[in-house]
Design goal:
The protein is an alpha/beta fold. It contains 15 helices and 5 strands. α8 packs across α9.
Length: 334
């Protein structure tokens, strides 16, 4: 059921849109700004459902003909702009699917809603074509521009939109939303919530992904074996990690969480509240072998590797230096 409750967090954005409905002061153009996976598309479609519901605009019934059409994405007054080129929205796309359509009055109800996903991909010509519509919109038109970067849009467009920014969702709220699904284990939910950077769509994808779970397990096994490893194993580990993490900055985030767990285990010796559930016994053992100074050196090396990647230092060399520090630091007394 398409509803605001399907989007975790974003309370201020939801309240702004509800207030617009209650007051009848609905803008002709909204810009929803935020990373992919925060719920921009769902919010726009749910708002359209509220506008079109035949029974209750603030609490759509979900059962009337209009609600069912919105949920099936077949409502004639809800138009999503499509584009064939994956990295570009051209002027013809805007002219044919928006500028021409906006001249047609609603088929039912009072409004027509136009949604432009990935609006930052519009060419300058496409944006200028859109500008003409936004400057003199018909009173029944509501346009949603969904973008991760408002700076990619012309100032003349930005100034004519109500800008609503979506924020990363708190980890606890993210986990609670996933647990409400009822079909994902708590261990998977907590792990995904930690890694998702506050992005619900990414958290859900990770929680159900066998590939993500396998990658985490393989990475943990490598890290747990490194302190006892020889030089050959270090080289093999580097190759495996490069294959597992084409984007090495993701590996650095994993490492920070891993050492966060080891430091927590050193402090309370219980294994509770660890990110990597199921590995408590092995993490407690690894924590005993790791001194606080060694942990500090490893975390410093993680930061240095991040700096090296920004400076375009050879990633293989940067990773090798980091793994050598982990190997040395994980040995008792080092």
């Amino acid at each position: 059921m398409l509803d605001f409750s399907d989007v975790a967090g974003q309370d201020s954005v939801k309240e702004h849109l509800r207030t617009a409905l209650r007051s009848g002061r609905i803008s002709h153009a909204y810009m929803l700004i935020g990373e992919k996976g925060l719920g921009k598309q769902t919010l726009a479609d749910a708002f359209a459902k509220m506008l079109f519901c035949e029974k209750d605009s603030l609490h759509p019934c979900g059962s009337c003909h209009a609600c069912r059409q919105v949920e099936a994405l077949t409502h004639p007054d809800l138009i999503h702009l499509r584009h064939e080129k994956p990295n570009s929205i051209g002027v013809d796309d805007v002219r044919e699917q928006l500028a021409a359509e906006v001249a047609i009055r609603p088929f039912s109800g009072r409004k027509r809603v136009f949604v432009v996903p990935e609006a930052e991909k519009m060419t300058v010509q496409a944006q200028n074509a859109l500008l003409k519509t936004i400057e003199e919109p018909p009173e029944y038109a509501v346009i949603f521009l969904l973008t991760k970067s408002e700076e990619a849009l012309l100032e003349t467009i930005r100034s004519r939109c109500v800008k609503l920014k979506l924020r990363p969702v708190a980890e606890r709220e993210l986990a609670a939303a996933l647990l409400r699904r009822g079909d994902i284990s708590r261990e998977r939910v907590l792990l995904a919530a930690r890694f998702a950077r506050g992005i619900p769509g990414l958290a859900e994808q990770m929680a159900v992904s066998e590939e993500f779970q396998k990658r985490c397990e393989e990475t943990l096994e490598l890290l747990l074996h490194l302190p006892q490893a020889n030089a050959v194993f270090v080289n093999e580990a580097a190759e495996k990690l490069r294959a597992l993490y084409p984007e090495l900055r993701e590996l650095l985030e994993f490492l920070r969480m891993y050492y966060r767990d080891l430091l927590c285990a050193k402090q309370d010796h219980s294994g509770e509240n660890l990110i990597f559930a199921g590995y408590e016994t092995r993490l407690l053992r690894a924590a005993k072998e790791l001194s606080f100074p060694a942990a500090g050196r490893i975390l410093d090396e993680i930061n240095r590797m991040e700096d090296r990647l920004r400076a375009n230092v050879n990633p293989e060399l940067a990773l090798e230096l980091l793994l050598q520090e982990i190997r040395q630091g994980g040995r008792k007394g080092k």
